[in-house]
Specification:
Helix 1 (17-24) crosses helix 3 (39-56). Strands 1, 2, 3, 4, 5, 6, 7, 8 and 9 form a 9-stranded mixed β-sheet that branches. Helices cover 32% and strands 27% of the residues. The two termini are 22 Å apart. The protein contains 5 helices and 9 strands, in the order ββαααβββαβαβββ. The protein is an alpha+beta fold and 174 residues long.
């Protein structure tokens, strides 16, 4: 578990399944990710994160607000996706329900995830990938100190055609 001033980043529970599925069926949340997901698909996403946590000790953790324990979304670290320029690296990523955008939660969770990574992982850097059109997300990458690796921009092999072009960002260990 990672505690911040306002948030708790933690492993996933069955109680997270319904609010996560609601996020995965919100067109605003999924606009730069891909098609809306069925309950089976969103549940499989949680199951993947639980498996990563068991195998590696980290994942895209569930994020909840400290004061009311409300599920906000996810943020964390996982192995970089196969078939991308960050394969073999540690990837940072996040997704929050639209009602929680613009409140600094994603930045707070991302900074906490980076701090955790520097403390517990022996890696030279952490990377991220993002659909080129997703300015909110790559703007956050820049705000947390990541720099675009233009030479590593790519067409994501599993993205829908409209979202295929992706940017790559990296941050070196401080």
């Amino acid at each position: 578990m990672i505690d911040t001033e306002r948030l708790v980043l933690r492993g996933w529970t069955d109680d997270d399944r319904a609010p996560f599925h609601a996020m995965c069926t919100d067109p605003a949340v999924m606009a730069f990710i891909g098609p809306l997901q069925s309950r089976a698909e969103s549940d499989a996403g949680i199951d993947r994160q639980q498996g990563l946590l068991a195998a590696h000790g980290h994942c895209f953790w569930a994020v909840e607000r400290r004061d009311d324990r409300r599920f906000l979304g996810f943020c964390g670290l996982k192995p970089g996706a196969a078939g991308t320029p960050i394969e073999g690296e540690v990837e940072i990523g996040w997704r929050l329900a639209a009602a929680h955008w613009g409140k600094g939660y994603a930045q707070e969770a991302a900074r906490a995830s980076l701090a955790w990574g520097w403390s517990y992982l022996d890696v030279p850097g952490i990377a991220a990938i993002v659909a080129a059109e997703n300015a909110r997300s790559w703007g956050l990458m820049q705000r947390i100190g990541m720099r675009r690796a233009v030479d590593a921009d790519f067409d994501h092999p599993t993205a829908i055609p409209a979202l295929r072009r992706h940017r790559t960002y990296r941050i070196a260990r401080p």
